[in-house]
Design goal:
- The protein is mainly α and 223 residues long.
- It folds into 2 domains: 53 residues, no CATH class; 111 residues, no CATH class.
- It is built from 10 helices and 2 strands.
- It has a two-stranded antiparallel ribbon with strand order 1-2.
- A hairpin with a 2-residue loop joins strand 1 and strand 2.
- Helix 4 packs across helix 5, helix 7 packs parallel to helix 10 and helix 9 crosses helix 10.
- The chain is rod-shaped and about 110 Å long.
- The termini are far apart.
- It holds the Pfam family DUF4129.
- Keywords: Membrane, Transmembrane, Transmembrane helix.
- InterPro entries: TgpA-like_C.
Length: 223
């Protein structure tokens, strides 16, 4: 006959084979211990593993057992080196939306064409006998060419004659020709006189001269 004391002692001992609910509770208690949380992979581990798997799938190498983590670290290092090299070679990405370029306005009018583009259009206008357009376009090409070289500045508010004076300061031997070209540009633009083949040739000749000339100074434009 089993004594009451023995029955009480055995009742306090948990069953060796728990039921489903008890087993689940034991598992949850065990997995909640800090040692299991510490063993979880860090975000860097997950990233490195992802890169390694990507490169492994890409190159399909035979990685020896136990070397997966080493390969992952090497792969991440390669990616970082490539990114740094790209920044060194090409520089940091620039914002695609830029402020208004000071040279986008020339003599009070929007102007996005290069000096080469303006020269081509001036020659095309001259070939059709459109001398007003040819004169205006060729002088604008002259001005844009000097600003592209960084020889003379032409802020949006600069007048044609202010530009001519600044250009004359760096090309003193062409001072008279620059002033005459500025007069011709203004006369044609404001309909004081029509353009002509001779005026177009003079401005074209001046443009070619200044393109190959060496400046002597770099003053700022005054309006």
């Amino acid at each position: 006959m089993i004594s009451p004391a023995w029955s009480a002692a055995t009742a306090a001992v948990p069953p060796l084979t728990p039921d489903d609910d008890e087993a689940r509770r034991w598992a949850e208690q065990e997995l909640s211990r800090p040692v299991y949380a510490e063993a979880q992979p860090t975000p860097f581990d997950l990233f490195a593993r992802g890169v390694a798997e990507f490169l492994a799938d890409l190159l399909d190498p035979e990685i020896p057992a136990g070397w997966e983590s080493v390969f992952a670290v090497v792969a991440v290092a390669v990616v970082v080196i490539l990114l740094v090299a790209a920044l060194v070679i090409w520089g940091a990405p620039r914002a695609t939306r830029r402020g208004v370029d000071r040279t986008a306005v020339l003599f009070g009018e929007p102007e996005a064409r290069t000096a080469h583009d303006l020269r081509v259009e001036a020659d095309a206008a001259a070939s059709r006998g459109r001398w007003d357009d040819a004169v205006v376009l060729r002088f604008r090409a002259l001005a844009r060419g000097l600003t592209e070289r960084g020889v003379v500045d032409a802020p949006p508010g600069a007048t044609v004659h202010a530009f001519a004076r600044s250009a004359a300061a760096v090309f003193p031997s062409s001072a008279d020709a620059l002033e005459a070209a500025a007069d011709g540009f203004d006369d044609v633009r404001y309909l004081r006189r029509p353009g002509s083949a001779e005026l177009h040739r003079e401005i074209s000749r001046l443009d070619e001269t200044l393109t190959s000339a060496r400046p002597v100074a770099l003053p700022a434009v005054t309006t």
